[in-house]
Specification:
Length: 207
Amino acid sequence: MARVQKPSPEVFLNIPYDEKFERLFLGFISGISAFGLVPRATLEITTSVRRLDRILDLIRRCEYSIHDLSRVEIDPGAPRTSRFNMPFELGLSVAFEKAAKSRTRGWFVCESQSYRLAKSLSDLNGTDPFIHDGTIEGVFRELGNMFRRPGRQPSVQQMRTIYRKLRINLPAVLRQAGSGTPYTARVFRDLSVIASAAAVEVMLTRR
């Protein structure tokens, strides 16, 4: 009897969707894929079904979630407002875990600066955030601290190789999608496919 392959665990990626975060966005996709995990994001929500219901469903089905709170500062564009989506979705993930109504095994909080989380979200005092310093190398380093997967522990160098593959392919992916931003459902899906294929190649060739 043929062995049924178990689906790869999924990771809910809660990040800011803006131009300044683009490099880290690609870094997270690259690193998550390197661990044999599947990145998921609210970018995929395109139907008319109530958005909050879809977000809840997406969080519920993911075994892990990563929440980047490094960009919760006030948006200078009119009207000047703070960004609440990231901490809100973090709260949903924490609630699901506490209520034991999801398959979530763990949620992780990222920041770019040490000690800032204690000021911006004091309810999480006692929770150690993963400080990536706002750099690609930092993202790869902290992903390595988050995940311990038997037989699948990519190095920072391997994750960087996958990232370079994404950077090279990004212009073509945007062109094919007719998009000027990577933050669309199709571009995110295509980048995830490229990253997954590159991860398999990198892990096989560097054993």
